[in-house]
Design a protein that fits this description.
Blueprint (H helix, E strand, L loop, with lengths): L8 E5 L5 E4 L6 E4 L9 E6 L2 E8 L5 E8 L7 E6 L12 E5 L2 E5 L5 E4 L10 E4 L13 E5 L10 H7 L36 H4 L7 E7 L5 E4 L6 E4 L9 E5 L7 E4 L5 E8 L7 E6 L11 E5 L2 E5 L5 E4 L10 E4 L13 E11 L23 E6 L5
Antiparallel strand pairs: 1-4, 1-12, 2-3, 4-5, 6-7, 7-11, 8-9, 10-11, 13-16, 13-24, 14-15, 16-17, 18-19, 19-23, 20-21, 22-23, 24-25
C-alpha cells in the first residue's frame, strides 16, 4: 500500500464494493455505490507528532469521527459520524492505517476498526467502529484505498486552506512507519492524478521475473504448470506446459510498480476469490474471471524467494499449488501455509515465453518533406518489436 504515500485525498471502498460517503446532513456517514460523487472523497490530514495517524475530512469540511455512542443498544458497534474539530478531543478524529495485504484497516482511538456493515436494516450500509467477532465479518474492516486529486474535488474549501494543505513539510519531519499507509513527506499532487510513486526496488521484490515479460508460464513445486481450464472458469495444474492453456499474459497495473495481472488464453484474469475451496478449510478458490471493473482481486504482488516467486493477494494470502488426494490433487487455491510440509507449495518457477524488446527508431538526418495533409509524428517515438520465445500454436 506504499503507493498512497503521496495521497492528499482518497476514496475508501468496502468489502461490499461500496464507498464511504458523507451525507448531506453533514453528520451521517454510510456506504454508497456512487463513487463518482464528491461525497465519496475524503481529504487526508497528517497529524503533527503522530506519524502513524491521519484525519479524514469530508467534502463538507467535517471530520470522520469515532464516538463512544452505541449504534444500537445492546450491540457492540459504536457510531461513526462527521463532526467539527474540537480542541482537546483530538483522538476522536484520528485513525491509524494498518496494512493488510492490498488493503488497510483504520483503527480508532479505542483499538477498534472502521467497519462497513452488511445485512438487513438498520445495519445495511451503516458504518461503525468495532472488532470482528466472527470469521464471517473479519473482512468487514478491510478497505480498498484509491488516491484521487484534490484541487477540483474540494472547491468548497477556502483557497487559503487548500494552499496550506499543500505546503511543504518542515525540515526534519518524521517519516511514517512502514506499516502506515501514509508518509509524512508528501509532495504536491496534480488534480485527478492517480498516485503512482513506489520507492521500493522492483528487482528486489520479485518484479525482475516479469521485467519486459509479455507472457509467462508458472511452474509449481510438483513440476506442473498453472493451467486455465477449458470451462473458462477453473484453474488447475497440468504437466503439459506447451499448450496455450499454460500461457499467461502479463499486465502491469497502471500506477503500481510491484503489482501485476495475469490473463489466460480465454481472455480472463487469474482471480483470488473469497469462495472457500472446501467448507471448513482455509484455502479459497482461484478462478478465471472477467469482472466488469478490474479490482484488486485480479492483482498479484510478486515476492522473490531465491530463484522462485510467491504471488501475494490483497488478503495477504499466496497462490498455492496443492498436492495430495482428490479433491486437493492438482487444485490451485490462495492460502497461507501453516505447516512446514506445505511451505514450498506457494513457490513458483517463472518461465518467460514471450518478451517485449524496445529498440529506438533510427533518426533520419534528411529534413521532413512538407505536406498540407501530413500527420505530426514525433521523430523520437520509439518503435516496439516483439520477440517470441517458443511456439504454442
Amino acid at each position: 500500500m506504499e503507493f498512497f504515500n503521496q495521497a492528499k485525498a482518497v476514496k475508501l471502498r468496502s468489502h461490499l464494493g461500496k464507498h464511504l460517503v458523507a451525507d448531506d446532513d453533514q453528520e451521517t456517514v454510510r456506504q454508497s455505490r456512487k463513487e463518482s460523487s464528491k461525497k465519496a472523497k475524503w481529504f487526508v490530514e497528517l497529524v503533527d507528532g503522530k506519524s502513524h495517524s491521519v484525519r479524514l475530512k469530508s467534502c463538507h469540511g467535517r471530520y470522520l469521527t469515532s464516538t463512544d455512542m452505541a449504534f444500537l443498544l445492546g450491540m457492540t458497534g459504536n457510531k461513526v459520524i462527521q463532526a467539527d474539530y474540537e480542541k482537546g478531543l483530538d483522538w476522536n478524529y484520528e485513525w491509524e492505517p494498518i496494512r493488510d495485504g492490498f488493503q488497510v484497516k483504520l483503527r480508532s482511538w479505542c483499538g477498534k476498526y472502521l467497519r462497513a456493515n452488511g445485512g438487513t436494516p438498520p445495519w445495511r450500509n451503516s458504518i461503525t467502529h468495532d472488532d470482528p467477532h466472527s470469521s464471517s465479518t473479519k473482512n468487514w474492516i478491510l478497505w480498498d484505498v484509491e488516491a484521487v486529486g484534490i484541487l477540483e474535488e474540494f472547491e468548497s474549501f477556502s483557497a487559503e486552506s487548500i494552499l496550506s494543505s499543500f505546503s511543504d513539510e518542515a525540515p526534519g519531519s518524521e517519516v511514517g512507519s512502514p506499516m502506515s499507509v501514509f508518509s509524512r513527506k508528501s509532495p504536491r499532487l496534480n488534480s485527478k492524478l492517480r498516485v503512482s510513486q513506489i520507492s521500493s526496488n522492483k528487482f528486489r521484490i520479485g518484479m525482475d521475473f516479469f521485467h519486459n515479460a509479455k507472457a509467462v508460464r508458472l511452474r509449481g513445486h510438483h513440476d506442473k504448470y498453472l493451467h486455465a481450464d477449458e470451462d473458462e472458469e477453473s484453474v488447475t495444474q497440468d504437466r503439459n506446459g506447451s499448450v496455450k492453456n499454460s500461457r499467461w499474459v502479463v499486465e502491469l497495473v497502471p500506477g503500481y510498480e510491484n503489482i501485476i495481472r495475469l490473463k489466460g488464453c480465454y481472455g480472463k484474469y487469474l482471480t483470488a476469490s473469497n469462495q472457500p475451496f472446501l467448507l471448513g478449510m482455509t484455502g479459497r478458490k482461484v478462478l478465471q474471471t472477467l469482472p466488469s471493473r478490474l479490482d484488486s482481486s485480479v492483482e498479484w504482488e510478486p515476492i522473490r524467494e531465491g530463484n522462485h516467486v510467491k504471488l501475494k493477494t490483497r488478503y495477504g494470502h499466496f497462490l498455492r499449488a496443492n498436492g495430495g488426494l482428490p479433491p486437493w490433487r492438482n487444485s490451485v487455491t490462495h492460502d497461507i501455509p501453516h505447516r512446514t510440509a506445505t511451505q514450498d507449495w506457494i513457490l513458483w518457477g517463472i518461465d518467460v515465453v514471450e518478451i517485449h524488446v524496445h529498440s529506438p527508431a533510427v533518426k533520419s538526418t534528411a529534413p521532413p518533406i512538407p505536406h498540407s495533409d501530413s500527420l505530426d509524428f514525433e521523430p523520437n517515438s520509439p518503435a516496439t518489436n516483439i520477440y517470441q520465445i517458443g511456439e504454442f500454436f
